[in-house]
């Protein structure tokens, strides 16, 4: 209190500021190092598979529909479309789609996931499968298939993503001992690979894990910093929209993540690779920095808000008033923490 209000403001704001700076540095480092990401994420939002009885099927959306806007907001990629759907659970919103060259509006009642209560309509992108792993000494390994191969077709039948790879699994399982003609895309080359599934428990098996086609996202230093600034600004905006929707009850508290969910996310990302782990750490650091600046008593933002009020009044508030405000903030934070942790336990141990 012996310092000026501006000096106190600088001390209070720097913790959150460095959280945000750390998020930008981590994201830029990941982009300079290079990270693999699904190719469909940045491509136009063209529908491939639609889950039976899902919201999309109920509304009449169809395979190969290209989604142009969601709830009046233009979307240019699958990622942008997914974000808009996730932010609007349990709401009826308009999807503008292009079908056979004709643009039409399809109202869809977005449903909420059971675990996190975020919006979903039950669709997957129009994308082929890719080989994420080849088991050593398997039929696929013997035939020369490699991780990263994009499976274009099998026996002339073009296969796209579906719920659990059912079409592909059924085809292989029913073909023990019979040659399957795989056409795969490797780098810029298309290759035909015959694979004879081995028999195991009466079913065919070739020894691969399925994934989606991925590409390396990598930038030179200055471009990586620009991309990091753009992404963190976008993430900050999404956080504020989510907080607003939580306050107005447009989104459920289930969307909040507690220590159990955070531990699981961090662990899963670390298993994926260092780049994924650093991305998650950056995302958490950004959220921590922004939330810490909110005008909630006891947080840095609460102290900054009091300094702002004192500046307007041109006098310091009494110590008694400040103590009462901080006591209220302490109780509020305990209630929020208790609610989030309780919801976290419920989501992770009681919701299937």
Describe it.
The chain has 10 helices and 18 strands. Helix 1 packs across helix 6 (221-247). The strands form 6 sheets. Strands 10, 11, 12, 13, 14 and 17 form a 6-stranded antiparallel beta sheet that branches. Strands 4-3-5-6 form a 4-stranded antiparallel beta sheet. The longest helix is centred in the C-terminal third of the chain and has 31 residues, at 319-349. With 352 residues, the protein is α+β, with helices and mostly antiparallel strands. 26% of the residues are buried.
Calculate the mean pLDDT score and round it. 92
So how many helices?
10
Q: What's the helix-strand series?
A: HEEHEEHEEEEEEHEEHEEEEEEHHHHH
Q: Give the N-to-C terminal Cα separation.
A: 52 Å
Shape: elongated
Q: Which consecutive residue ranges, at least 5 long each, have pLDDT under 50?
A: none
Main sheet record = 6 strands, antiparallel
Helix content: 40-55%
Going by helix content, strand content and strand pairing, the class is alpha+beta
Q: Kindly state the number of beta strands.
A: 18
If you compute it from the alpha carbons, what radius of gyration comes out, rounded to the nearest whole angstrom?
A: 25 Å
Proportion in β-strands: 15-25%
């Amino acid at each position: 209190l012996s310092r000026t209000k501006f000096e106190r403001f600088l001390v209070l704001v720097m913790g959150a500021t460095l959280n945000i700076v750390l998020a930008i540095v981590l994201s830029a480092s990941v982009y300079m190092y290079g990270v693999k990401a699904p190719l469909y994420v940045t491509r136009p939002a063209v529908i491939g598979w639609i889950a039976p009885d899902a919201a999309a099927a109920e509304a009449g959306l169809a395979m190969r529909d290209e989604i142009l806007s969601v709830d009046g907001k233009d979307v240019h990629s699958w990622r942008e479309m997914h974000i808009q759907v996730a932010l609007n659970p349990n709401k009826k919103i308009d999807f503008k789609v292009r079908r056979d060259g004709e643009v039409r509006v399809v109202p869809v009642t977005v449903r909420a996931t059971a675990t996190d209560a975020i919006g979903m309509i039950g669709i997957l992108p129009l994308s082929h499968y890719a080989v994420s792993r080849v088991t050593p000494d398997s039929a696929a390994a013997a035939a020369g298939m490699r991780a990263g191969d994009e499976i274009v077709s099998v026996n002339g039948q073009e296969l796209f993503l579906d719920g659990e790879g059912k079409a592909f699994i059924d085809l292989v399982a029913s073909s023990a001992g019979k040659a399957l003609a795989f056409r795969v895309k490797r780098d810029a080359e298309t290759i035909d690979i015959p694979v004879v599934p081995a028999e195991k428990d009466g079913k065919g098996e070739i020894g691969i894990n399925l994934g989606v086609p991925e590409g390396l996202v990598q930038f030179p230093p200055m471009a990586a910093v620009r991309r990091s600034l753009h992404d963190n600004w976008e993430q900050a905006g999404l956080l504020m929209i989510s907080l607003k929707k939580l306050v107005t009850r447009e989104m459920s508290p289930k969307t909040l993540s507690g220590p159990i969910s955070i531990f699981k996310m961090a662990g899963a990302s670390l298993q994926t690779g260092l780049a994924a782990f650093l991305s998650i750490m950056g995302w958490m650091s950004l959220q921590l920095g922004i939330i810490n600046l909110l005008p909630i008593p006891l947080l840095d933002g609460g102290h900054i808000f009091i300094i702002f009020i004192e500046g307007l009044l041109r006098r310091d508030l009494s110590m008694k008033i400040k103590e009462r405000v901080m006591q209220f903030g302490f109780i509020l934070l305990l209630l929020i923490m208790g609610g989030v942790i309780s919801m976290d336990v419920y989501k992770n141990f009681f919701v299937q």
